[in-house]
Amino acid sequence: MHLLDVLRFGSAAAVVVYHFTATPSASRYWDADVTVLFEGISHLTRYGWLAVEMFFVMSGFAILWSSQGRSVAQFAGSRAGRLYPAFWACIVVTAVLQAFWAGGRHLTFGETLANLTMAPALLGAELSQVVYWTLLVELKFYVLVGVAMLFGPLTRARVLGLAVGWPAVALLVRGFGYPDLAEHLVVRHAVYLSIGMVLFLLWQDLSARRESSDDGGRLGTATVATTLGVLLAWGSYQVMEAAGRATALQGVDVDPGVSVVVFLATVGAVWLATRPWAGFRSPTLGAVCVLAGGLTYPLYLVHTQFGWAVTEWLTVRGVGTWTTFAAAVLVSVLLAAVIHYAVERPLGTRLRRAVTARLDRSRAGRPAPAPATVSSHPAAHPSLATAGPPLLDPQLR
User: Fold this and answer.
1) I need a labelling partner for 7 at 20 to 30 A (CA). Which of 14, 49, 255, 397 fits?
2) Which GO terms describe its molecular function (predicted)?
3) pLDDT averaged over the chain?
C-alpha cells in the first residue's frame, strides 16, 4: 500500500503548512499576520487542520489491521514500540531547544517528565508541543481496542458495535451534562477512527473476492457499507461544527461546505489507497514511499517548535518569507529523518519485544486468549487473518 504511505506523509505536510502559514501562533514568529503574509495560499492552507481527521481515519484502518493474529500482549508491544521511542526523542530535543530559545513553550522539569507519558494533560501538565494532543486521542483508541481484545476475537459484529457504540456513548455522555467525561471518550474524534475501522471491514470483504452466489457475503458487505454511510454523515456534521471553531481560531472564514468536501475527499483517498492497484512495482518508487511513511510520525512530532524557532530566527534577520518558510520545513524534515534512523528504527523493535515479553510473563500461568482476528464471512480468504501485520510493518503498525 505505497499510496497509503504517500497519503500519510501528505497529511503530515498539510499539518506542517497549516501551522506555519495559517495559525495565530505562527503570526507571532513571523512578526506579521499570516492571513496577510500568505494571502495567496491562505484560501487553501486554512483547511490544513482537516489532515488530522484524515490521520484518525487512517489510524482506525491500520490499528484494526494491526490487531490481526496478535495477542493483547503483542498488540500492546507493537503500539509501544511504534509510538514511544520517537516521541521520547522529540520530548528530549524539544527540551534542549527550549533551553536556548526564548520563544515556544517553556516547561518545568516535572512537566517535561509528565510529557514522557504521552498523557500530560491527565497529570495537569502543559503539552511540550501543541500537536501532542492527538497522541492522547490515539492512546485512548489503542486502550479501547486492547480492552476489546481481552474479551475475545474482534468479530465483525463486535467491530461494528464498537464503531457505532463508542462515538454514540460519548455523545450521550456529553448530552447528559458530563462534558469532561465525554472528552475522555474522545467525543469530537471517535467517529473518524470508527470510519477507519469500518473501511477496514469493507476492504476485508472486497479483498476476499467472494463468489457472486455468496448471498451472505453480499448481505454482510451491505451492512458494513450502510454503517460506513451513517458514520460518514455523522463525521460530516462534526466537520461542519469544527469549521466554526477553525474560523474563530484563524480569524478567517473557514467554509463548512468546503470542509465537508475536503473531508469526504480525504476518506475517499484513503479508500483508493487501499485498493490492489494502489502500489508501485518499481522498487525505487516503493522505497521512496516507504521512506515518506517512515518520516511521517517524527515530522509531525517535531515541526511546530523547531519550525517556529527557525521562522523567528530568520525573520528577525530580514530573510525573505519563502526562504524562511523553506528553511523551517527543511529543518523539520531533516530532524525527523535523524530521529527516524537514529532512534525510531533501532529502538522500536527492542521496545516492542520488551513490552510483549513483560506482559507475557505477567500472564504466565493464565489461559492464553485467542488471537484477536477480525472474523469475516465463511467464504473469506483464509490468509486475511495473518496478512495484516507483515504488510503493515514497519510503517503503519
Assistant:
1) 255
2) acyltransferase activity
3) 87
Please tell me the pTM assigned to this model: 0.88
Tell me: the pLDDT tens digits for 366-391? 555 555 455 444 333 333 333 333 33
Which contiguous run of DSSP H or E holds residue 23? none
Candidates 269, 331, 337, 267; CA nearest to 303 is 331
User: For the segment 242-256, what is each residue's pLDDT rounded down to a tens digit?
Assistant: 999 999 999 999 999
Q: Tally Cβ neighbours within 10 Å of residue 248.
A: 9
Beta-carbon-side half-sphere exposure of residue 215 (alpha carbons within 13 Å): 0
pLDDT, tens digit (0-9, with 9 covering 90-100), for 333-347: 999 999 999 999 999
Supply the pLDDT for residue 69.
85
* DSSP structural state of residue 93: H
Among 210, 212, 224, 218, smallest CA distance to 271 is for 224
29 touches 311 (CB < 8 A): yes
Classify residue 397: in a domain, yes or no: no
Quickly count: other Cβ atoms within 10 Å of residue 141's Cβ: 23
The answer to whether residue 287 is domain-embedded is yes
Cα separation of 143 and 149, whole Å? 10
Place of cell 465525554: 182
- Residue 229: give the domain boundaries: 2-392
Q: How far apart are CA 370 and CA 124, in angstroms?
A: 38
394: preceding bond cis by omega (within 30 degrees): yes
Residues 190, 192: Cα–Cα separation, whole Å: 5
Looking at the structure of the chain, the number of domains it has is 1
